[in-house]
């Protein structure tokens, strides 16, 4: 074997990027006192998506309005009067938090996302709109805050203030949960998740948040055990995440957007693709207490040529979704058991408009833990890192 | 979860070729005595198991009617040897591709004589598919057995009975296989079976195990998803694609997200952040190799991670991996091992099994054979008939690969008596019998393989000469030569084929091959003659010893032991010293011995000890027949008895080279007792006990000894162990730690080994050890 593979020296172990540098990196340089100067942004540059939160002050005095420089005004107008930016930037209007009081100012919090590969265009826009003249500090987290730091500086003349990804994530979650969702609950769960008739999304009051297992599903997955506001650890992570779902869907179905992949999945039947316990044992495998409906082998039916030919793209998309979701559920469940935690909060953009995955996570966690574990979700699923970055800018708390 | 065998060979499962490439009677051996069949049918490989009785010749020794009387007078031998037929039990396991199923079933039906057999135990995912065919062809009723139960029964069986069954796989070391010594207590452990899905089972005792979890992402995912992505249909071809690919073209790595900054963060940018993360684009093509590699990493890492999480939850650190995803494939063993090391930070060991592919068949067989209580016996792998672990890397050894693609055999002999640990081992779990690991030590390996090759002619001659009245002796001896020669060649290319390669395993393999061709005891006549000659000298030797002063006598006794040990027909350097005058030869041998100080010399300490109170009971492992046992060991035993120490004299159960066997030792003792009152009364009063070791090896494995011996050692409170001879005290046990005093002595009769130990030919090892408190 030796020498036959060109990759023998490569290290090839999965990891989600965020956890790798969390506990031993602390930032000594804090944003200077200019921090409360508008505009207020928080930026989270992930592997696939950039998440941007923007605080739009609604209590601007006439005096302030007069003093507001043109570029600042133009940014505010541009961001708040559009719901789409270029061909890929999107403002999640439904997530907007209204009448928020932040650092003594009242305003609305906007949630914007665009693909990471459009980052150069974003930086260019910053340059065109003359951001650097605002003497603002860009608080950014995520791996991209490293990758694009130099570009921000040389192209946009902007200094990034890089922040710990997990710190931001946890701060963001706790903060957003505390302010609620325009009078509604931020946190929710599913009742009867397996039953499409009876399934209900219900608010959950996270009044006793600790301990908490936090599962952040972005391109990859990070799993954190949170014991208090400042006491948390990264438990593990897996490379089988949202990026894997979307990547495999692109290869298997030729789809080009996440939404398209999910839409296909919603019309597919994964049992044509997966081999179930009942396909092998004719029913339940009683010796081990395995129900017949459980997946025995993901894509297991695809070992057969006939079944490969019979499976539609929709079936393949569905199977990919089920495979990745079940696996995340399974790892999360094992972590919860090992850490002795029974509430598990799933966040991250993989869950955006992804009810199939959420219901499956809810069901799988409940079933395999015999009701011991509860799966919780949060309305602003993918934006917590960016919110945390914004809070850091304002030094809250 | 269910087993779905993968194609074992490059020829693949779709081939319609039904011809059998080896003569079937060399594969389905002993069918005429076969009973109790079991079959494990996977997706493309079938494993058949059956029990047979093997009739083979053994040399029996028997006293003449008037023992001892005539010895002094004439040249009659002290006992007679008769060759008898003996029946032993053997388990046969054969692995072949499903495409041969019909041909194999036909062959079995045509040769099956035993009509008691009514049922066949069947397991595996394919058992259902072939049920009708089996019932029709063999006219046996198919009894389906649970897949996991069979796997676990099989796993327990091999872990208990086959030394060096489990190994770690280390990709960058040479060899990649690192075998584990058998742990005295195999439970509890985790078995991760990667078939089409993954089952994780915690095994706590022989009969208690629990499915604690699983994953649907397994071998079927690799195969099914791989087939979709690459249009490659066969499992093996997918693995080959994967071994050529670069996953970084498909996976999103940490460095892709962090840019160059990962270096300043002190972390590896090569870590995978998101599997298939780069393929999330419609406008790029990806190579089959890269996708297959990415998929392999994704699945192996995921399984490794889950296995670690389960191991942690249940507090286990030994995880055995099996199933068709593993089945000896270096690519998958490598990625799984890597993943386990990464996720457990080295706390969990990923272990693989040499006979992994047979577990289901072994288990199914055991289920069916429960009334024969196979678990009450000890079994030993027959090296002569078993194929050993084949490298599945086609680059490494294409011919071997082709063979394993067709038929693969495992045979296990039922040992007459159950084997257990010597109760005096200091730490049974860390005991390693062998001194040098030849899989590790390439220089030593080359030397010994060549040495055994060169000695082969002599062994063949000896074998022929031992059966002058047999007409086909020459023919059989030639077959033996070919068999052993080919084993040696296999071991040159794949030292790990039968576990850790050692001088012991080379010797044992030779004994198995000799037995295979009905040369049960080529040295029987030589031993008979030498025993006769030595018995004649016994009294004069003891007389001269008795005339010495105490201190002088002690040294003379030790020298006698050592000199006796020079007489070893197995060692080339002395094979022609003494045809005529044994007494002269014995004296000559003493002169040949190295002068003190010896190469290893703790004699002074031993003498000091002898001045103290007598030992309660000494356990002595004897080596050669003739001068060694009679003029070396027995006078030493006599002195111990005289001091008030009881003696347990342990000899091999079966023949190996010129080593004294238990039955020979009984006759020898009887003759000596007739001449010597000390020995006579000690035998009568059970102060001298003769026992068998349970072994037929020229070496000594203290972790596999006859249960009766172990019981006796405990009962009598043995506080001294004496091990003599190169095979038992140097090739094995040189570093063995005991919890009582021990004496290891040998004469180094091999120039190369002597040089290695820093001495010359006929250097003396006298190692007296007292355990530290």
TrEMBL record, chain A:
One of its GO terms (molecular function) is pantothenate kinase activity. Its EC number is 2.7.1.33. It is found in: Cytoplasm. It comes from the Eukaryota. It is an enzyme of class 2 (transferase). Pathway: Cofactor biosynthesis; coenzyme A biosynthesis; CoA from (R)-pantothenate: step 1/5. Homodimer. PANTHER family: PANTOTHENATE KINASE, PANTOTHENATE KINASE 2, MITOCHONDRIAL. Catalyzes the phosphorylation of pantothenate to generate 4'-phosphopantothenate in the first and rate-determining step of coenzyme A (CoA) synthesis. This is pantothenate kinase. It comes from Cricetulus griseus.
UniProtKB/TrEMBL annotation, chain B:
Residues 1-13 have a biased composition (Gly residues). Its EC number is 3.1.3.-. GO terms for biological process: coenzyme A biosynthetic process. It catalyses: (R)-4'-phosphopantetheine sulfonate + H2O = (R)-pantetheine sulfonate + phosphate; (R)-4'-phospho-S-sulfopantetheine + H2O = (R)-S-sulfopantetheine + phosphate; (R)-4'-phosphopantetheine + H2O = (R)-pantetheine + phosphate. It comes from the Eukaryota. Pfam families: ARMT1-like_dom, Fumble. Its cofactor is Mn(2+); Ni(2+). CDD domains: ASKHA_NBD_PanK-II_Pank4. The keyword 4Fe-4S does not apply. Phosphatase which shows a preference for 4'-phosphopantetheine and its oxidatively damaged forms (sulfonate or S-sulfonate), providing strong indirect evidence that the phosphatase activity pre-empts damage in the coenzyme A (CoA) pathway. Hydrolyzing excess 4'-phosphopantetheine could constitute a directed overflow mechanism to prevent its oxidation to the S-sulfonate, sulfonate, or other forms. Hydrolyzing 4'-phosphopantetheine sulfonate or S-sulfonate would forestall their conversion to inactive forms of CoA and acyl carrier protein. This is 4'-phosphopantetheine phosphatase. It comes from Cricetulus griseus (Chinese hamster). The gene is Pank4.
């Amino acid at each position: 074997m030796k020498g036959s593979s060109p990759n023998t020296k490569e290290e090839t172990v999965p990891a989600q990027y965020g956890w790798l540098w969390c506990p031993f990196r602390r930032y000594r340089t804090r944003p200077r006192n200019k921090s409360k100067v508008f505009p207020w942004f928080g930026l989270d540059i992930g592997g696939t998506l950039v998440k941007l939160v923007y605080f739009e002050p609604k209590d601007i005095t006439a005096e302030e309005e007069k003093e507001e420089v043109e570029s600042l005004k133009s940014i505010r107008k541009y961001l708040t009067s559009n719901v789409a930016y270029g061909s890929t930037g999107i403002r999640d209007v439904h997530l907007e938090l209204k009448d928020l009081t932040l650092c003594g100012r009242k305003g609305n919090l906007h949630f914007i996302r665009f693909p990471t590969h459009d980052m150069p265009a974003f930086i260019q826009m910053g340059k065109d709109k003359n951001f650097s003249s605002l003497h603002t500090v860009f608080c950014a987290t995520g791996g991209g805050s490293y990758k694009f730091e130099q570009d921000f500086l040389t192209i946009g003349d902007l200094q990034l203030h890089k922040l710990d990804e997990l710190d931001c994530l946890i701060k963001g979650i706790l903060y957003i949960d505390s302010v609620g969702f325009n009078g509604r609950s931020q946190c929710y769960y599913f009742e009867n998740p397996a039953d499409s008739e009876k399934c209900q999304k219900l608010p959950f009051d996270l009044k006793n948040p600790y301990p908490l297992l936090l599962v952040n599903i972005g391109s990859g997955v990070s799993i954190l055990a949170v014991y208090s506001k400042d006491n948390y650890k990264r438990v593990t992570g897996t490379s089988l995440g949202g990026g894997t779902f979307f990547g495999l869907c692109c290869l298997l179905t030729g789809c080009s957007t996440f939404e398209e992949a999910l839409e296909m999945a919603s019309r597919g039947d994964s049992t044509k693709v997966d081999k179930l316990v009942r396909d092998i044992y004719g029913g339940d495998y009683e010796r081990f207490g395995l129900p017949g409906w459980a997946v025995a082998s993901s894509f297991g039916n695809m070992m057969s040529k006939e079944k490969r030919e019979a499976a539609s793209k929709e079936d393949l998309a569905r199977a990919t979704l089920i495979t990745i979701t079940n696996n995340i559920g399974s790892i999360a469940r094992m972590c919860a058991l090992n850490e002795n935690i029974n509430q598990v909060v799933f966040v991250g953009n993989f869950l955006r408009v992804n009810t199939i995955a959420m219901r499956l996570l809810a069901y799988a966690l409940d079933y395999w833990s015999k009701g011991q574990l509860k799966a919780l979700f949060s309305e602003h699923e993918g934006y917590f890192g960016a919110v945390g970055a914004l809070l850091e800018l304002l030094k809250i708390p | 979860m269910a087993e779905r065998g993968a194609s074992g060979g490059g020829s693949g499962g779709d081939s319609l070729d039904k011809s059998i490439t080896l003569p079937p009677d060399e594969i389905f051996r002993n069918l005429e005595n076969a009973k109790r069949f079991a079959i494990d049918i996977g997706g493309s490989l079938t494993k058949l198991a059956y029990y047979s009785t093997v009739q083979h010749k053994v040399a029996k020794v028997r006293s003449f009617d008037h023992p001892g009387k005539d010895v002094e007078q004439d040249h009659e031998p002290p006992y007679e040897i008769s060759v008898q037929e003996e029946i032993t039990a053997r388990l046969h396991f054969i692995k072949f591709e499903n495409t041969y199923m019909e041909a194999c079933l036909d062959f079995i039906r045509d040769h099956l004589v035993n009509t008691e057999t009514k049922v066949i135990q069947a397991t595996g995912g394919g058992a259902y598919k072939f049920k009708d065919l089996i019932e029709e062809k063999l006219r046996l009723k198919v009894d389906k057995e649970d897949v996991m139960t069979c796997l676990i029964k099989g796993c327990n069986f091999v872990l208990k009975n086959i030394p060096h069954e489990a190994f770690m796989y280390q990709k960058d070391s040479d060899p990649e296989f690192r075998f584990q010594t058998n742990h005295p207590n195999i439970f509890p452990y985790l078995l991760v079976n990667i078939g089409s899905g993954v089952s994780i089972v915690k095994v706590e005792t022989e009969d208690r195990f629990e499915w604690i979890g699983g994953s649907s992402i397994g071998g079927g995912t690799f195969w099914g998803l791989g087939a979709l992505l690459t249009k490659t249909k066969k499992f093996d071809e997918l693995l080959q694609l994967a071994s050529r690919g670069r996953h970084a073209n498909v996976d999103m790595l940490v460095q892709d997200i962090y840019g160059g900054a990962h270096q300043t963060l002190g972390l590896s940018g090569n870590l995978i952040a998101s599997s298939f993360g780069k393929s999330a684009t419609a406008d790029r093509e990806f190579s089959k190799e890269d996708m297959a590699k990415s998929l392999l990493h994704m699945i192996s890492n995921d399984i490794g991670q889950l296995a670690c999480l389960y191991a942690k939850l249940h507090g286990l650190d030994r995880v055995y991996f099996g199933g068709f995803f593993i089945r000896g494939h270096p690519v998958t063993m490598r990625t799984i091992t890597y993943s386990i090391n990464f996720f457990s930070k080295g706390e969990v060991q990923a272990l693989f099994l040499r006979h992994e592919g047979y577990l289901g068949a072994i288990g199914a067989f055991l289920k069916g054979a429960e009334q024969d209580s196979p678990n009450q016996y000890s079994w030993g792998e027959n090296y002569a008939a078993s194929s050993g672990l084949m490298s599945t890397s086609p680059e490494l050894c294409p011919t071997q690969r082709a063979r394993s693609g067709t038929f693969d055999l495992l045979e296990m002999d039922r040992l007459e008596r159950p084997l257990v640990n010597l109760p005096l081992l200091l730490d049974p779990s860390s005991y390693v019998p062998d001194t040098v690991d030849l899989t590790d030590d390439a220089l030593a390996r080359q030397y010994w393989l060549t040495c055994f090759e060169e000695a082969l002619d002599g062994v063949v001659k000896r074998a022929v000469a031992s059966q002058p009245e047999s007409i086909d002796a020459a023919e059989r001896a030639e077959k033996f030569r070919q068999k052993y020669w080919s084993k040696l060649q296999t071991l040159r290319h794949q030292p790990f084929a039968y576990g850790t390669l050692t001088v012991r395993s080379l010797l044992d393999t030779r004994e198995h091959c000799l037995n295979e061709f009905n040369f049960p005891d080529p040295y029987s006549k030589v031993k008979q003659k030498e025993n006769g000659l030595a018995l004649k000298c016994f009294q004069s030797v003891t007389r001269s010893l008795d005339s010495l002063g105490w201190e002088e006598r002690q040294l003379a006794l030790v020298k006698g032991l050592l000199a006796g040990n020079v007489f070893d027909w197995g060692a080339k350097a002395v094979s022609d010293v003494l045809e005529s005058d044994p007494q002269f030869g014995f004296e000559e041998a003493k002169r040949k011995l190295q002068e003190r100080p010896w190469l290893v010399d703790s004699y002074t300490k031993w003498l000091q000890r002898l001045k103290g109170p007598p030992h309660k009971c000494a356990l002595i492992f004897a080596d050669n027949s003739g001068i060694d046992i009679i003029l070396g060991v027995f006078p030493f035993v006599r002195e111990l008895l005289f001091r008030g120490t009881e003696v347990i004299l342990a000899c091999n159960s079966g023949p190996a080279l010129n080593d004294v066997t238990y039955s020979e030792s009984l006759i020898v003792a009887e003759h000596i007792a007739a001449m010597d009152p000390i020995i006579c009364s000690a035998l009568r009063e059970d102060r001298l006990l003769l026992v068998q070791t349970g072994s037929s090896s020229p070496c000594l494995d203290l972790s596999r000894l006859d249960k009766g011996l172990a019981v006796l050692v405990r009962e009598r409170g043995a506080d001294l162990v004496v091990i003599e001879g190169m095979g038992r005290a140097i090739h094995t046990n040189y570093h063995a730690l005991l919890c009582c005093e021990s004496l290891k002595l040998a004469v180094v009769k091999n120039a190369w080994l002597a040089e290695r130990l820093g001495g010359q030919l006929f250097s003396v090892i006298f190692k007296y050890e007292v355990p530290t408190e």
